[in-house]
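User: What would this chain look like folded?
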Amino acid sequence: MPDRQRIIVINDSSDAYDGADPQLFEQLGALGFEVRAVSGYDLKLPDIIESFAPEVVIIRSESDARDVLEHVAVATRNRPRPIAMFSASESTAHVADLLRQGVSAYVAEGMNPAKLKPVLEVAVARFRLDQQLLAELADTKSQLEDRRHIDKAKALLIKRGMSEDEAHRRLRRMAMEKNLKLGEVARRLVEAAELLG
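Assistant: Here's the prediction, encoded as structure tokens.
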């Protein structure tokens, strides 16, 4: 991990340092992190996360801390970050839900500072993989949407007497003239046709 990354430790109590383990902060410092602790119930949590801009978020919890996790999810919605959750609870019943809510790594039965580095590395790696998959999914959806618009636009042009090849060439020429993607030109053509009825 790069030097001096920022990490925020969020406790599921009203006191940011309640139950804080000095060994944890020493270990995080030794790993090269600048550390800040905050309560998960702090109403300014979104502002704190925004201004501190941590690369990684740790949630320390006595239970599954769903309300704290939801607070963190809202606070990191615009700029997602790897989240490692350490729960004192032995329960792993809600792990799938936690992963869906953005937790990258979950450790039951508390935090072992000696195992902190590999857990954080897993959280960061999992987060990066998830972000890559989300980007690929968004790109695939965009390509499918473009394809749908292109097919509709070609159908409109074919109805006006063009062959499929002529319709495709016309769309490509319009895209080049307007310096737009083919899918965008097709979308605009379809929308204009829908407006005109």
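Strands lie at 5-11, 33-39, 56-61, 83-87, 105-107. If you want, I can go into more detail on any region.
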